[in-house]
Every structure is written in C-alpha cells, then in structure tokens.
Amino acid sequence: MIRSGIVTLYVADLDRAWSFYTKTLGLEPGMHVSGTWAQVSAPGGLTIGLHPRSDASPPGGRGSVSIGFYADRPIDKAVADLTRAGVRFAGPISDDGPVRIASFTDPDDNPLYLCEYTGGAPGAS
Fold it and tell me: Mapping DSSP to helix (H, G, I), strand (E, B) and coil, where does residue 121 land?
C-alpha cells in the first residue's frame, strides 16, 4: 500500500535550510522550487522535504520528531568534520551499548542526530 515516504520539516528560511542540508551535511539535492518547497535525500532512501514555515507550522518544534543519520565514518571523525563546518553538537557523543549518538540541530532548531552502530547490529557503519 505504501511505497515510500518523506519527512517534512518546516523552516524559517528555505534557502538557508537548503544550504545547510546540501552543503553542510552533504545530502543529495532534489527538487527545489524557490520559496515554496525543496527536497534532499540521504543515501539509503531517506527523503527530507523542506517547507517554508507558516503560523500554523512553526519550525523547530521539539519532542515530536527527530531525524537520525547513520555516520559514513567513525562518529568521532564525523562530529569533528561537521563541527569544523559550523554544526554545534548538544554535548558529547553518548555511548549507549551498541550505538553511539551525537545530537545537533539544523538552523531552525529541528532536532537531528548522528548515529554509529558499534555492536555489529544491522546497518553498522
């Protein structure tokens, strides 16, 4: 019944969000209709839609959605690389058994995290 899906984030500045997701995080650019809608894709099939905010849909609402990305290298190196690119992480990398997680936000304060499997779980980097 369902073929695929998309996570939509409401952002204050579409061009700023587009730059963050494509240039800073290196996600694949997709459709981009200036001022209206944009899509980016991560390897493995995650699609993120970027939609300009409205009064009914403000950006950065915490607690209901968090987008995770699997690190393509050891997480310590990925965090260092993203920190040099201007990403601010919320504290140190947490080590929770078979996974290590580093939390950060996009420019609209939408919660994101970087994940590295260390216990041989499926999808391990």
Answer: coil
pLDDT in tens, 1-42: 546 678 888 898 999 999 999 999 999 999 888 888 899 999
Second CATH level (architecture) for the domain 1-54: Roll (3.10)
The domain segmentation of the chain, as residue ranges, is 1-54, 62-125
Buried b (16+ CB within 10 A) or exposed e, 66-84: eeebbbeeebeebbeebee
Place of tokens 């899906």: 5
Half-sphere exposure of 57 (CA within 13 A, CB side): 9
What is the H or E stretch that residue 113 is in? strand 111-117
pTM for this prediction: 0.73
- Amino acid 85: pLDDT: 95
